[in-house]
Design a protein that fits this description.
The complex is a heterodimer of chains A (about 110) and B (about 110). By secondary structure, chain A is an all-beta fold. Chain A contains no helices and eleven strands. In chain A, strands 2, 4, 5, 6, 9, 10 and 11 form a seven-stranded mixed β-sheet that branches. Chain A has a four-stranded antiparallel β-sheet with strand order 1-3-8-7, with no helix packed on it. The model of chain A has no long low-confidence stretch (mean pLDDT about 95). In chain B, the strands form two sheets. In chain B, strands 2, 4, 5, 9, 10 and 11 form a six-stranded mixed β-sheet that branches. Chain B is mainly beta and about 110 residues long. Helix content of chain B is about 0%, strand content about 60%. Chain B contains no helices and eleven strands. The N and C termini of chain B lie far apart (about 40 Å). Classes of the chains: A mainly beta (about 110), B mainly beta (about 110). At the A-B interface, strand 4, strand 5, strand 9 and strand 10 of A face strand 5 and strand 10 of B.
Chain lengths: ~110, ~110
């Protein structure tokens, strides 16, 4: 079975641009979470979606938004990119909320 | 407080030795304590996890020890192997159905052959 898949794996943007990152959860998993991992740090929670509804939001500005689709895949959008948004963006899925999280390999975003 | 303090930042052990990584937390409402292993260029992978109703959990060479009164938990890797060289993260989660994990800053483990 495929694990959590994320796309793109790497991307480079310039300040002020917008980016969309995509995630497909493990088959059967209904919950998707997004994390930001800055180099040398642990992942930091951004959003959780369960059954297409937002269930949690971390301490990130409104430039960050996300949604979950009927097939449980998810998108993370970041507007008005800043240099500090450069990070590995991780998607994680679980069978339902309050269960083990399984992470994808991430999307490496570089903002120049 | 939702911080998790992890130590040491880096650790070097010889093959066959024991690797010990420690974490401390402050919020007594945390009810789930996983450890993740991350190789360069990869996402974190769940290694082992414990809930506060037990003091120890062992899976193969990996053991979590949990001290509820001290609000500390640790990962022990027995018979450490070069393939265990990776960054290890402890994490915690609030009770109540949230999926928000709060991670430590990580420990880079190097196991020398």
């Amino acid at each position: 079975d495929a694990g959590v898949t994320q796309s793109p794996t790497h991307l480079i943007k310039t300040r002020g641009q917008h980016v969309t990152l995509r995630c497909s959860p493990i088959s059967g998993h209904k919950s998707v979470s997004w994390y930001q991992q800055v180099l040398g740090q642990g992942p930091q929670f951004i959003f959780q979606y369960y059954e297409k509804e937002e269930r949690g939001r971390g301490n990130f500005p409104d430039r960050f938004s996300a949604r979950q689709f009927p097939n449980y895949s998810s998108e993370l959008n970041v507007n008005a990119l800043l240099l500090g948004d450069s990070a590995l963006y991780l998607c994680a899925s679980s069978l339902q909320t309050d269960r083990e999280l399984f992470f994808g390999e991430g999307s490496r975003l570089t903002v120049l | 407080q939702q911080q998790v303090k992890q130590s040491p930042q880096s650790l070097i052990v010889q093959k066959g030795g024991i690797s010990i990584i420690n974490c401390a937390y402050e919020n007594t409402a945390f009810d789930y304590f996983p450890w993740y292993q991350q190789f360069p260029g990869k996402g974190p992978a769940l290694l082992i996890a414990i809930r506060p109703d037990v003091s120890e959990k062992k899976e193969g060479r990996f053991t979590i020890s949990f001290n509820k009164s001290a609000k500390q938990f640790s990962l022990h890797i027995m018979d450490s192997q070069p393939g265990d060289s990776a960054t290890y993260f402890c994490a915690t989660r609030l009770q109540g159905g949230s999926e928000k994990l709060v991670f430590g800053k990580g420990t880079k483990l190097t196991v020398n052959p």
